[in-house]
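Page 47, continued from p. 46.
Same chain as before, 247 aa.
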Amino acid sequence: MKRLLPLAVLLSVSYVAPAHALFDDDEARRQIVNLRTETNTRLDRMEANSSRGQLELASQNEQLRTEVSKLQGQLEVLLHDIESLKQRQRDFYVDLDNRVRKLETAAATAATAAAAATPAVDPAAESREYESSLNLLKEGKYKEAQASFDHFIKAYPRSSYLPNANFWAGNAALQAKDVATANNYFKTILNTWPNDPMAPDAMLGLANCQQALGEAKPAQETLKKLVQSYPDSSAAKAARQRLGMKP
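Result:
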């Protein structure tokens, strides 16, 4: 009996060991299956992510190509516009240069023609003719003096004697009773050379013409204007006397 007990214990142990081993195998298989499933899931997720990333990358690349194409198109348009602008600028400068050259040519031609048409003035001859006209006036030859001064004015349009020539021509006409002509000579001085020393005397001569034409009121106004415009002149002194004003 004592011999049978160890044998029974040994048999029970031998039966227990395979059951435990079988339990460990099932657990291992289950873990393997779980690991395989998890691995496959991860792989699927990675493949999905990879595919999605590739699609996004492909989409981004396509967008970049589209934007680059647009930029290239805009660049070509800008380059064309710049070239057109440069061409217009070149055309503008060429046209401007041509116009300036034409103007310069025209000006040179006009200057040449003017120089040819206007003979050089002989100062000595100019002075002699002026003195000759003045001598006629001194001799009391009023009509001849007026005609001589009138010829001088036309012959020497740039002469420095013009204010004086107009004044003495006006005086000669006034002495010859040609009041209207004298009036015109005096007005010419006042309109053309208002700051000339002869201007005050011309205004007094204008008042004399107005008085001779029976224009008493305009004559008075002219005398008053003479006093106001040229207060320090000898003509203004004469005007004050005629107006009854204090010197």
